[in-house]
Amino acid sequence: MQEGTKRIYLESPYKVEFEAQVVEKVIWEKKPALILDQTCFYPESGGQPCDKGTINEVEVLKVLEDEARIIHLLAEDISSDKITGKIEWQTRFDHMQQHSGQHILSQSFHELLGAETLSFHLGEAISSLEMDIRKISEEEVENVERRANEIVFQDREIKCYFIPEEKIGSVPLRRPPKKKGLIRVVEVSDFDFSACGGTHVHRAGEIGLIKILKLERIRNNVRFEFICGKRTLEDYLWKNRILRELSTRFTVNEGEILNTVEKLSSDLKSQKRKGKKMQEKIAQYEAQEIIQETKEKIIKELFVDKTPEEVRFLVLNIIRKGDFVVLFGLKGEERGHLILGCSENINIDMREIVPLVSPLIKGKGGGRSSLVEIAGEEIENLEQALERAFEFIKKKMGLDL
Ligand SMILES: [Zn+2]
Predict the structure, then answer these.
(1) pLDDT at residue 1 is higher than 50
(2) Distance from CA of residue 176 to its chain's centroid?
(3) I need a surface site. Which of 146, 292, 359, 364 has the fewest CB within 10 A?
(4) Confidence of residue 400 (pLDDT cuts 50, 70, 90)
(5) Per DSSP, which regions of 189-335 are E strands?
(6) How far is ligand 1, taken at its centre, from the CA of residue 185, in Å?
């Protein structure tokens, strides 16, 4: 039939253990590699990753195709000429589910929307299909999913057979074959005919549920991410867990969660707006109180239980209500803040203070001539920094004489 390595997986995709003769030992990609007379290992090709497994208990790192030969890259050299190979069944069966599901999904797109499959990638967690589709509605996507899963539920047979190139016209292939000579046809009974060299399940029921997860525009086409079989089950398990959790937390039915979250988010926005207005009001009253209590032109204080924003409001309200210089510090949990302001009528540029006090609190800051803010990590030195600013202002206002 074919020259090169005999591909056992074409006839027997369920076979996991095999014996073979070493035909050649080579170094490939700087690794010891074997070419065998026959193999169960699928080499990476056609959008499907290679199988995992061992040869004489040595890990197979990668399996590649070099024309008709299959190259097995090994973790270490093997001395014997006769080997026993074992492929990892879990990965193989997962690939069979994803790949067979792709055939059915591709044909469902074709049947319902006349769309061609441009490329297929079988990923480790998620597979993708690029389709020549410009636009697609949510309803159309769901119809494609329904049709694909209908084929699965009917448990149609999936047959693989070879047809000579010159007779390929007798098979209604979805896409023309890329290879020459003997063409391998994968038929999902009376539904899809594809020229393909991959590994597939024998019956559509083995694929399990086919689910499209999301789509995105790519170039002028649409790329669909999908999962099949065990992957779909795992996906359903964690998504259902989240829904159940949310439903308990909000004490609503699962169907009501979206409405509840939307309502909460709009409530939160309006609360934030109200909170900000109240903050401004409080700052006005507090400023009034401070002004009434003080006899000085320079007001200095260190706060602990406010936010920087609240202190800023307070400073602004005081300097607008009279001729004051306000030197406020704020001891936060991780950072200290200095918020320093002065009224317009007092001719002092507060920016001059920044380089004087910043090094004390290892801080950075700036602002305009009437208001500066400095934040730094040396919280213990905040008082000292305030004092230094105070001395500077006294000098400027001629109060230190
Ligand atoms: Zn295939």
Answers:
(1) no
(2) 35
(3) 292
(4) low
(5) 192-195, 210-218, 221-228, 298-303, 325-331
(6) 9
Pairing of strands 127-131, 69-74: unpaired
DSSP type of residue 203 = B
> For residue 199, how far is its CA from the centre of ligand 1 (angstroms)?
6
DSSP 400: -
CA-CA-CA-CA torsion sign (301, 302, 303, 307): positive
The answer, yes or no, to whether residue 225 has pLDDT greater than 80, is yes
Residues of the chain with CATH 2.40.30.130: 6-87
Q: What is the C-alpha to C-alpha distance for residues 94 and 283, in angstroms, rounded to an integer?
A: 64
Mean pLDDT of 40-62: 94
Q: At what angle do helices 138-153 and 89-113 cross, to 10 degrees?
A: 120
Q: If you average pLDDT over residues 176-188, what whole number do you get?
A: 90
Q: What is the C-alpha to C-alpha distance for residues 310 and 317, in angstroms, rounded to an integer?
A: 11
**Looking at residue 2, what is its pLDDT?**
43
pTM to 2 decimals? 0.75
Span from the CA of 290 to the centroid of ligand 1 (angstroms): 79
Q: What is 92-245's CATH topology?
A: Threonyl-tRNA Synthetase; Chain A, domain 2 (3.30.980)
- The whole-number average pLDDT for the span 48-72 is 95
Assign 283 a pLDDT band (cuts: 50, 70, 90).
Answer: confident
The pLDDT of residue 50: 96
Distance 219 CA to ligand 1 centre (A): 25
Mean pLDDT over 27-38 rounds to 96
User: Could you tell me where in the chain the CATH 3.30.980.10 domains are found?
Assistant: 92-245
Give residue-wise pLDDT tens across range 354-368: 999 999 999 999 999
Task: Find the 141 Cα to ligand 1 centroid distance in Å.
Answer: 22
236 CA from centroid of ligand 1 (Å)? 25
CA of 216 to the centre of ligand 1 (A): 23
Q: Which two tokens stand for residue 170?
A: 């007798």
d(CA 145, CA 131): 15
Distance (Å) from CA 95 to ligand 1 centroid: 10
CATH of domain 284-396: 3.10.310.40
Instruction: Give dist(CA 88, CA 114) in Å, integer.
Output: 37
